[in-house]
Records
---
Amino acid sequence: MRCRFMRVMILFDLPVGTAAERKEYGRFRKFLIRSGFVMMQESVYTKIVLNPAAAAAVIRKIRAAGPAEGLVQALTVTEKQFAAIELITGSTDHEVVDSTERLVVL
């Protein structure tokens, strides 16, 4: 299978009105971080994957572990599309790799 790097973006809006809802929010957020997602901004997390099959597997995991209440959405884009994100206002607090060059970690 050919590698075609992609990004899976998880966007969510969960209720936090009660203690149980806040606990569920924290559980889901920690699940995303343990699964290799990185916070892009509040309630938007991204993860790089090798190909569409890997993206589908990640989304299946999210679907299984997702909260019962609230809104959780997944968006899959190619790494080239993700690199084309344009910063309109504000600044990023962390360094973001925003090029189409391949990253090799040894």
Note: The radius of gyration is 15 Å.
---
Amino acid sequence: MNIQGLQKLTLLDYPGKVACTVFTPGCNFKCPFCHNASLVTHVDPENNIFMEEVTSFLEKRQKVLDGICITGGEPLLQNDLEEFLKQVKKMGYDVKLDTNGSNTEKMRYLVEEKLVDYVAMDIKNSPEKYGQTIGISDCDMKQIYKSVEYLLSGIVSYEFRTTVVKEFHEVEDFQRISEWIKGADRYYLQGFKDSGDLICKGLHEHTKDTMEKILEQVKINIPNVSLRGVD
């Protein structure tokens, strides 16, 4: 499995868990506001980390860490992900998967094989604006719809999240989004931050006041919604 980053400790990425985060390269979306452009548009093979190095680290930290977050890029593009997760689960770790929801069957398989305990799926925008938001004008929404439906069924613990960018999101978009994922267990509105490693430059965050207006709009359909990363 291709691994290009390892954050050895996080108290934020996996709710209720002390975890580490593994970063995988490659993505089938090209979201202009992606904060990990180096994992999407200009992947450097010299940054690869051997899987054995990561599993060795995990073996040593079994009494310290509760879980592992798999993020990217889009982790479900990795052919050896199942093999890696089997090793992780044998060590007793809980697994959180970050995904854009474009491969429902693989996500479902990993969940039903008990290799994933928590899924965080990005909701990029309202369906009408999805293509422009992910940088693919002819986006096929079928897999996205299926993934949302699967998670809403409650088979696995999950969250939905949207990174809110001034150039792509308006308050009105969140009425449509909240109707689409109505009743979600958890939904996070994430404030956009310029990481310095974006696919496109010149993007901006909304003001805190606007984010709070969006929050109130969403609460009508999703009571368990909160802001994340908003100062």
Note: The chain has a mean pLDDT of 95.
---
Amino acid sequence: MRIDLHNSTFNLETAVPEAAKMLLGGGIAVLPTETVYGLAARASDEQAVHRLVRLKGRSENNPMALAISGLKSLSEFVSDMSGLANRLARRCLPGPVSIVLKVPPQSEFFNLPEYVQKLCSKDGFVSFRVPQHFFTFPVLQKLDEPLVLTSANRSGEKELTDINSLASVFGNEVDFIADDGDAANKKPSTVVKIDGENYSILRQGAVSAETIQRLTAKMILFVCTGNTCRSPMAERICEKLLAEHFHCSPDELERFGYVVLSAGLAAGSQPASQNAIEVLADKGIDLSNHCSQLLRETHVRYADYIFTMTRAHRETILSAFPDADTCMSVLRIDGGDVADPFGGSLSEYQMCAAQIESEIAKRLKTMGLHK
């Protein structure tokens, strides 16, 4: 069966259950991803996976990936992820990156058929992928179990990005083809192996090595209301303290594994307040190029540490993003608020900046980063 995902009669609500039913019945599917097409079979269906391996013509010693439905599913397979693994998983899944992680003994992975375990693991490591595609992602959610996923080509041959060529090669041997036209990205996913706090790129793909390096950096995020006073001052002060710690310039912090940002709950592309600019200028910090930005879901998902200026800011964020609780605190160690100096005198801004600097130094010390 071949379904054209761009046909005027296509209906996602009926096509997704149809694809899921086919896979549940032991079928093999050609599914689109945000990179190249993939051949897929249910990981719990040993017979279907055997058929997939024969169709692919791939050595059983060459591990295949597991496609899963998201971070919750990943935590069931790898419950003890390192900080680095956690960061990359939050920032890359779903997306065109496969993350190779070591599965612990209690992992759900060991509930899969023994043949599938051997096929999808090497030295205890398993590759996980969450395709970010409008059709394949909901199919995975509907199934609520992993798929063995491999690029849709014969082993040893180049990836097939032309849907008609792909259908010609596999059309009579698979049960379902989801036709999304020619692959938009001609490169496969980037494969990153993570071992503790170290990583290596096993396959260059859609995401560059430079981007992967940036995504491994720890992100510290400061949040206030308008992102014109407290949080931008905190951002630049934190950069200064970190740069002093690493003996580098603030522009080089990413090379040392840190990114510092700020955002506001009600921000709207405004410059920093003049008093904030003047106060930081006295500290040798340039805030004149700051432009306020609204707090977004990606900020919260990417951040390793979120520091709010007040308890009210924290509660507002938690109401929208309950999972942020584990990485978010008010900036003050004692749990109090940093008062808003907006509209106040220069001396009020000076006191605010001094308080922010003192509290950031304390926070960095708790992270083991500053004297």
Note: The chain has 13 helices and 15 strands.
---
Amino acid sequence: MTLSLLGGKSAFDQPLHVGRPNIGDKRRFLQLAEEALDRRWLSNDGAILKQFEARLQELLGVRHVIAVSNATIGLELAFRAVVGNRKGEVIVPSFTFVATAHVPAWCGCTPVFADVDLTTHHISTESVERCLTDKTVAIMPVHLWGACQATPELEALAARHGVPILFDAAHAFSTSLGGKKVGHFGAAEVFSFHATKFINSGEGGAITTNDDDLAQRLRLMRNFGFAGYDKVVTLGTNAKMNEFNAAMGLTCLESLEEIIARNRVNWQAYEAQLSKLPGLSLYYYDPATEPNCQYVIVEVDAAQTGLSRDEFVEVLQSENVMARKYFYPGVHRMEPYQTLQPEAGQELPNTEILTRTVLALPTGTAVGEAEIEVIGKILEMAASNQREIKAALAAKTA
């Protein structure tokens, strides 16, 4: 095998993507879709949506599940329902997808960026405490990579200051901490069922809460504030999930255990490959969180490998392995935040490190052990031919 950057053929004919959709039983999905068509009921709390919410409620053991059209609007609804019309500061990590910060900004509040722990990549309780002021109206942590944010200390801190917590649980479906499933923490939690998530509804999300009053408000807000025909009782929007998205979600849930098992097998296969390569450190999951292992995350130590994270990405993508730089460059370096808070990075040393070193590799049901073995060989060859790789990349950009 010769790396394509050094004159060889790409290792894979078709791209291997991070977050390529997991597809359950296609016949089951088509059966559910056909049922929706036969009923001529395609949205507005249809039968399949109700099945999907009931199954989620059963799996998570929560009192309420409110399915929504996507996780971002789910976060917006939860934020408005919990924070109300108060304006102030909301503590969020910068090491996350930009939607986490966009939600409070969209709702008229100011995101304040807290740093993360270098080992777990989760928001640091100590950093959150430093960010708390009398202007703080909420804290929005993120459960990353398919593991649970260590919440007891964070929740205790928030309780002492009387500040609500809303969790962005986009990555964390089916995970837990201390026997408590994600979905039960904070005032509410929001899951993503986007196509890139290991359980997907094509596009969609869900809000979970054990607060009866909050759940009632969220259901009203999801449907324009309607409380019956021609009766609007509150401000709302259209955040409803349709029947076809619910059908996809229900189909994926029926394959939940098989998908998690594949993720874990893939993670172990990567562990075997990366153990041979100094300077490429696999993100380890705490088994106490019952991780779903939906991401394979590697930290690159350029001093040991001779190549930077970005150079490894170039090598991998030239081989049709569409590795990603998560969460590059950090939300604090994106607009409008970079302009509004140009000095934020000075308070985020760990975030700055991780945005330069974290690499996400393909996994899921579209990837098997044979592909992972090839990816391991690509990484090994790149590290062994670092000078040639650097020269090839320099010539490519000249």
Note: The chain has 15 helices and 14 strands.
